[in-house]
Amino acid sequence: MNTEIRKRDDSMGQTRINTGYTVGILGAMASEMEAIKAMVEQPQTELISGTNFVRGSIHGVDVVCATCGVGKVFAGMCAQTMILRYQPDLVINIGVAGSLSPRLNIGDIAVASSVVQHDMDASPIGFPAGLIPGIDVINLPCSADVVRMMEACADALGFHHESGVIATGDVFVQDGAQKKQICQSFDAIACEMEGGSIGQVCYVNETDFCILRAISDNGDETAQDDYDMSLDMAADRATRVLERFLMNLGVGQKVLGQ
Questions:
Q1: Cα distance between residue 60 and residue 50, in whole Å
Q2: Any catalytic annotation for residue 170?
């Protein structure tokens, strides 16, 4: 990989850093990111707006990692900062999610083909539910190549998986009626609280992205108890899929953008 560091001024007065082909990795919680950050070789940490960004490499792939915080605003802030400062070629949001699909059970892997924001609703003033005014998009598409690679990694690890729409909103879904409404409105397979805002930031910045989630609960009345019991297991499974992806990228089985 090209290790030349290019620096340019941006409109915020920050210095942009890019070390060749770089993968940005974002997760909302420490439990979703601790194991990933522990893999980073020769880590360098930079604090920006209260968030630690850790640069280095994993299995020979240049990475920048951050724990962004829970919810759409924190996730969007972190993604925008990461793109402006480090210019990743690909942004991956990793974590856990609630299942909206009868084909996805706790511990299974959900890979987004696209993301929506299920709580974006300007329909009273004439917009379709979910449409983001200004970019006029409902479904924000993920990188199809990366989706296929993530599915192959899940297969190699023996994890059941499904790709489809992942729905984002600033709510922990734990109600059967709400689950049904989100599923029917957006044909979504899983729900969470960050991917849609990260997808919006990447879409506006023309940066490839992928949302990788392991199922921690079923988004129904048992969701809180299931989440508490399954969080660590689900986070570990998502981490293992991501590590396999980076290993494949590092040994040159797939080199995106080259």
A1: 28
A2: no
> 22-250 adopts what CATH topology?
Rossmann fold (3.40.50)
**pLDDT score of 252:** 64
Average pLDDT, the chain: 90
Catalytic residue among 192, 194, 208, 217, which? Answer: 217
pTM: predicted TM-score of the whole model, two decimal places? 0.89
Token readout for 184 is 């029917």
Q: Is 208 a catalytic residue?
A: no
Q: What is the pLDDT of residues 84-121, one digit of tens each?
A: 999 999 999 999 999 999 999 999 999 999 999 999 99
Beta strands 109-117; 161-168: pairing state: parallel
Question: So what's the pLDDT on residue 73?
Answer: 97
Write out the two tokens for 192: 């969470």
